[in-house]
Amino acid sequence: MKYIVMLCDGMADYPMEELGGQTPMMKAKKPNMDSLVKKSTVGLVKTVPDTMKPGSDVANLSAMGYDPLSCYTGRSPLEAMSIGIDMADDDIAFRCNLVTLSDDELYENKTMLDYSSQEITTGEAAKLIEALNEQLKDSEIEFFTGISYRHCMIWHKGPNGLGLTPPHDISDRKITEYMPENRKILDLMKKSYDILKNHPVNAQRVKNGLNPANSIWLWGEGTRPAIPDFKEKFGLDGAAISAVDLIKGIGITAGLDVIDVEGATGNITTNFANKGKAALNALLNGKDYVYIHVEAPDECGHRGETENKIKSIELIDSDIIGPVTRGLENAGEDFTIIVMPDHPTPISTKTHARDAVPFMIYRSNKPAKGTDRFDENEAKATGLYIPDGPELMKLFIGK
Questions:
Q1: Taking a C-beta distance cutoff of 8 angstroms, is the pair 373, 313 a contact?
Q2: Of 292, 302, 238, 237, residue with least CA distance to 264
């Protein structure tokens, strides 16, 4: 038996007036999902405990079968693992976004115009991170280049539990009430604005009509991750496929093979087809389990892009789910596939929600009585509800 998790980050949503009361999942043309769901176990699962913030870190750990209440140590440490940072036990890692703030004179009065600096390229970002290290690196602080706008700062022997706000939660808002209380963190953010606002990379971006990456925003702090080995826990030899450092970091920490895919970007431009090909290749060449993570629906939710969110769901269906399931059928392989979001990212709020999310589990050798379509309402109508996210893994692998 082969096991596939198709994790559609942020896919779930709320009914939208512009879609006639439908959600993007309802509106999307997804013939493969809607064919499989008719023979699937369908329901809702709560991936985020009430005491935790509804981040992709917590929700993806839950979807992978790990209890975030016992193993979660922060988002940034997982991303640090993915870019090869060897954290000491007393290091604190911070996610370091390159953001676009408004040009108000006082830093505290600025507005979060763009949490991703219009998805700045990694090459441009590397030069900005280098400039930060040249002026801000010391015996305590060091910056590391990640991908696009997503980077990492290590504070050796730093503080934890600062309660910092993710920048994608405050899109288009003044940052005044979201400023960090820790003086050093605030000082680093203010100094970064002075360093970056006139940097040649940003001067060229403005000239090209692009948003400048004129400040850092620090959040998601935590200590070295403590995630049990996946194969030891579940008895499956697995792999993870994702464009984002967070999921790669979870995979590395859990002992999964992390497969890099050409053209994977973490947004609507990602190469969906290459992700599907990579997953199928891994499954036909010895892997028992593949966790396919697609960030695009989440990014579209954060950016308020309704049509692109619908399009991303359709591309997951046509370019990943269809080819992977047909490929396994043609190879004579029995398989179980679960399709689910990690959390909702509603267009209306542009941020994560902790609502329970729909899931479908299709077993090629044991069809179930499913629903007509795969969406939030159909999943809720089944009455199947799993209140503890990690328990879904037991249902998924039949244990």
A1: no
A2: 292
Give the Å distances, CA to CA, from 84 to 111, 240, 251, 254, 315. 33, 17, 13, 15, 31
Segment-wise mean pLDDT, segments of 10 residues, the chain, 399 residues:
98 97 98 98 97 94 96 90 90 97 95 96 97 97 95 96 93 96 97 97 97 97 92 97 93 96 92 98 98 97 96 98 98 98 97 97 96 98 98 92
- Please count the other Cβ atoms lying within 10 Å of the Cβ belonging to residue 45: 24
pLDDT digits (tens, 9 = 90+) for 252-305: 999 999 999 999 988 999 999 999 999 999 999 999 999 999 999 999 999 999
- Quote the Cα angle for 80-135-211, to 5°: 70
Q: What is the pLDDT of residue 75?
A: 87
Prediction pTM value: 0.85
The pLDDT tens digits for 240-263 are: 999 998 999 999 999 999 999 999
183, amino acid identity: R
Spatial separation of the C-alpha atoms in residues 27 and 23, rounded to whole Å: 6
Cα–Cα distance for residue pair 252/80, rounded to 1 Å? 11
One-letter amino acid at 168 equals H
- Which is nearest to 187 in space by CA: 126, 140, 148, 150? 140
Q: Which of 60, 11, 64 is nearest to 374 (CA)?
A: 11
Residue (of 360, 371, 372) closest to 336 by Cα position: 360
Which pLDDT value is given to residue 86? Answer: 87
Q: What is the DSSP string of 208-226?
A: TT-----EEEEEEEE-S--
Regarding beta strands 40-45 and 385-386, do their DSSP bridges make them parallel or antiparallel, or are they unpaired?
parallel
The alpha carbons of the chain give a radius of gyration, in whole angstroms, of 21
| Under 8 Å between Cβ of 296 and 265 | no
What is the greatest pairwise CA distance in the chain? Answer: 65
β-strand pairing of 257-259 with 238-241: parallel
Which residue, 309, 292, 352, is CA-closest to 26?
309
Collapse the DSSP code of 338 into the 3-class scheme (helix H, G, I; strand E, B; otherwise coil) and give the result. strand
Give the phi and the psi of residue 252 in degrees, each rounded to 5.
-60, -45
The neighbour count for residue 132, using CB atoms within 10 Å, is 24
58 CB burial (10 A radius; 0-12, 13-18, 19+): buried
- SS3 label, residue 311: helix
pLDDT at 27: 98
